[in-house]
Predict the structure.
Amino acid sequence: MFSVLFFVTLGSHALSHHDTKALIEQLTKRINSGESTAENYYRRAIEYRVLGRLKEAKNDLRIALQRNENFILARREITRILSKQGQHKLAILSAEKVITTATTQREKSSAMILLARMLLNAGEPLEAIKYSSTAFKLNPNGKLEWYLLHARLLGELKRDNERPEILRKGYQLTGSIVLRNAWIDSLLECKKYETALPIIEKELISSRLKSSWKLRRAKAYIGIGKINDAMNDLRMCLKELDQRIHPKKPDMTLIADRGMVNALLGNIEAAKNDLSHLIHIGAEKWVTIHLNKAISLMENQ
Amino acid sequence: MNPIIRFGKDMDDLKEKIGSEFILERRTLDESDKSINDASSLFDAPEGTRQFEAKISNLDPNSTYYYSVFDGEKRLTPKDSSYYFKTHPKPGSKSPLYFWVVGDSGTGGENQAKVHTAMRKYNQVKNLELDMYIHVGDMAYTSGTDSEFSERFFKMYEPTLRNTVCWAAMGNHEGKTSKGEDGIGPYYDAYICPKAAEAGGLPSGKEAYYSFDYGKVHFIVLDSHDLDRRPTGAMAQWLKADLEKTKAEWLIAYFHHPPYTKGSHDSDKEQQLIEMREHIMPILESGGVDIVFTGHSHIYERSMLINGAYVTPTVSDGVILDDGDGNPNGDGPYIKSAGLVPHNGTVQVVAGHGGTKVSRKGTMPIMRSIFVENGSVLVSISNNVLTGTMLNLDGLIRDTFAIKKEGAVIHSPIENPWNPATGKKPIKKKSISRGIKVPPVAKMIIRKNSQWAYFLGTENPPGNWNTLAFNHSSWKKGESGFGFGDNDDRTVLENMKNKYSTLYLRRSFALPEGIDYKKIGLVVSYDDAFIAYLNGKEILRVGIESGNGRKARNISPHEAENKFEYFPFDTNAIKALEGGVNILAIEGHNHERKSSDFTIHPTLILKK
């Protein structure tokens, strides 16, 4: 069925759109000529952030907040910068202020999620999940990213059995394929192979590149004891991944897949190489944790 | 108001009708009554604004429908053949595609209008019609407000938007008022993007990034402005899944922030641009992307065929797969494998020159064509060829490039590629006027002592003797090598001495599947000189300064000594190759008629 969305509508004092450095210069001129408003400091901070000049960005955001302590956008921005700089305690304090500054339900729930992220970054998933749960209470539909965050927090807290339900709900509400795939992964982690397998089989038929689905099927096959079939899938997976991975500049997500394939095939050294590579290119703990676990498991067998 | 849309395939008979039951009415937030929920409110439209969104279902694919807008019985749009819309063809179906690419246009100024007019005039003269229009962001300066959208986008492009769908990517200026995470703001009021895969691809669950199909072409639209660009982010995870799923034959991605630019922005220094290059490009290229359109940087920059250029700062070493100009009338199109093949080469196009002031900071080393002037890009895809044309604001064509897909092409990076800063290719260290030592052979494509068709140079052969179309059935057949004297020839040309000095050879061959074209080369034993042609195109000249056939001049003597020399195929030769049958044609020359010997013994190899 084909549809067309038909759309009919009835119905400054601005900065010119030059390059980033020129924009900073324009804003600096304004600030120096008396227009030292919170808004102008905030805008200059955003441009500093674009250039990776976080120190200057943070300084401008501080001034913006001195001029207007309820400036929620500036407060959110400084929170993210603090976290990026590893100043987790300050980031948490700042996120808490975002919550108190928020006036609407939407702003409050969004601020709760920001605080949950800061707490996760600080290594406090137990505290973090309290805030992500509250955010869902304030805004029951949530957002795609909230479901991913909440599911991750459950994983960090080793409450894997609760993950499929939140991801399934998120998928139903948002329709996002990312949540659908994360839901399937969570089913495999919870050993619910019979639920996952029919979906995986269907995906394998309709996909052009099959390695991620073959990897998922191999995990299910291992779970139900079809080891030979799993090994076949893994070998085919490896073949496809080697074609897709740029030998010198690989994509992180594919390296993570290959590491897992190697681990499950018992190629421990190769899996360790992929793991080291992931760590070397700065992959997050959430990317490496499953591979680490698989390598340890295979080494202990 | 009682909005009604009437539509049909016959302009004079708009048979179908939809009314308010399928039309969503949206209004400004402060006016909303309790019957209208929050999500359907307009973000910042002036009080009294009404926006109507009609959903029309069960349309035929690849069809033109005329329409008219009514308020009850009162017709609001004139009876005019320009009021129509076209549906996309079914995903996977064979359909040519012609579309317009614009970026950074939304000033509402003279240059934006000129760029638009230039495109419309060009299409009118060439009798072309757009199938769709893509905008790579910054369509409503300065902050993407409702009034800026009205004046600088809808009003400006009204004659085009009346009948051409615009698939948009959000720019940073729209991002000042619209947020990708929520899908709220004037940008999201202006567009209804297919977050549930309504137009193909996989559901993203977000209007900020989505995909859609047009026949055999798959389009991916990303939000490079305000969403997580890391590989672990939801957008990158969706991208990976979407790429794994598509079975299209062409893959086009677009977003606002360019991974490669030295226009008004610098992709070596700015965070969003660096992240799109370091995080998103590896995913796109491992999924087989063909072309990436971006804006943000106010310039036109178009790359060579590249792969794996992810490091910061961007360098050309080890990433250029074809350093030609890509112009079908110049160095020839960029050649890629049929279908979508990972890391088979991408062309990057920065089209941030749609209306705003243009400028340049430097030279991005992967670029082949750079213009600091306003304009836009027109793209056509027909079967296995994509052609892009940069049209400036005065309607002049500034750049043309093409990508041709056939067979299986294995590329490897070019050493010392063409340099955009000097406009030249670095001077080669080795001269190839003589051959080099024969490398280990993986496969003989044309063996020694193979049968060739040959023509004696007592007279001139027909002008098209070296082309694929020429029929050589009337020529003599013989096994190589050809010549006389020295006892080293299989087909002896007894009457050559003092009678003629040139011999013409032809032989067809097909390439094995999946080979690396850069490993192909001629291995020839020759006395004295020769010119080789592939499918009518000269690919190699050894020992002859100029001319060909009887007009060949300054032929150097060379003894075969029963030895073979290797001549690897260069980019020109690779471009001359065809996917199916090829013709190798060679004219062998003696440096003078009275010479005591002559030999030409060509073979074609694939080295290990």
Observations:
- Chain A touches chain B through 57 residues (CB under 8 Å).
- Strands of chain A lie at 2-9.
- Residues 245-301 of chain A form one domain.
